[in-house]
Amino acid sequence: MSRRSVADMLQLATGVSRFFGAQRVLDGLDLTVEEGEVVALLGRSGSGKSTLLRLLAGLDKPDAGQVTVPDGVGVVFQEARLFPWLDVLDNVTIGLPRTARAAALDALAEVGLADKSRAWPLTLSGGEAQRVALARALVREPRLMLFDEPFGALDALTRIAMHQLVVRIWARHATTVVLVTHDVDEAVLLADRVLVLDGGRIAHQVTVTRAADGSVPATELLDRRAELFSHLGVEQLGALRRQARAEPETPLSQQERLAQT
Ligand SMILES: Nc1ncnc2c1ncn2[C@@H]1O[C@H](COP(=O)(O)OP(=O)(O)OP(=O)(O)O)[C@@H](O)[C@H]1O
Ligand SMILES: [Mg+2]
Hints:
The protein is α/β, with parallel strands linked by helices. It folds into two domains: 1-72 and 150-261, P-loop containing nucleotide triphosphate hydrolases (Rossmann fold); 84-141, no CATH class. The protein is built from eight helices and nine strands. It has helices spanning 49-56, 88-93, 101-110, 126-138, 156-173, 184-190, 218-231, 237-245; strands at 9-20, 23-34, 38-42, 64-67, 73-76, 144-148, 176-180, 193-198, 201-207. The strands form two sheets. Strands 5-6-7-3-8-9 form a six-stranded mixed beta sheet, sandwiched between helices. A three-stranded antiparallel beta sheet has the order 2-1-4, covered by helices on one side. α6 (184-190) crosses α7 (218-231). The chain starts with 8 loop residues before the first strand and ends in a 16-residue tail after the last helix. Adenosine-5'-triphosphate (ATP) binds next to α1. GO terms for molecular function: ATP binding; ATP hydrolysis activity. InterPro entries: AAA+_ATPase, ABC_transporter-like_ATP-bd, ABC_transporter-like_CS, ABC_transporter_ATP-bind, P-loop_NTPase. Pfam families: ABC_tran.
């Protein structure tokens, strides 16, 4: 919450329902975010996270209720979704007038790809392609950025580099962000508030308290993680092992991440 000074609220979804055949995926869901807030959305596979994001992005319509998003929404998906027949710069400026080229070059520089503007998408690494997708969203100066597991396909090191990059960019642009992720740690490290989607609604929310420098203290990470795991109905493996062996607490392991897909 420390990143914001003005507390303008955006009521993005009001009583939103979405059905697919007989399946009720979203059920009267309400979602409000504060301008400049970074909100992470967690939930089991199939809980409706992408469905909600598609509605917010205007790519789908609710069966009931209302979606109200500000003008200018940027979306970044798990795959970069670049057009292979366009070079990087043309991918970033697609649909924009030629006057946007200077801003596009700035956006590419911001994501560390100043030297790749004339490269072809097929020659890029996964992390580079994702950074192009980020630049494509940024150049439109969105008030709201939607991310659907944007780091899910990246290796661990690239993922950490992307975390650092997006945190810098979000802070610089004071963007409001809704980030879908499977990764509880990623949610706590990146978001001001973590929401759990369950039963078609936001069933729980957890607020993350940061240190003055914006980092998340280790104890805060552990506490919020434990809270979220319990909301997600997932026993942490460490706790289960301790229970089984009646051993004292051990350091955290990577295995405690959600592996739902
Ligand atoms: N276009 C569609 N037609 C029919 N069913 C759909 C459609 N889109 C989504 N669904 C169903 O809605 C449910 C929610 O899907 P959604 O993609 O929103 O889940 P998710 O929370 O994003 O899951 P994951 O974490 O695996 O990405 C799933 O059961 C899915 O099969
Ligand atoms: Mg999804």
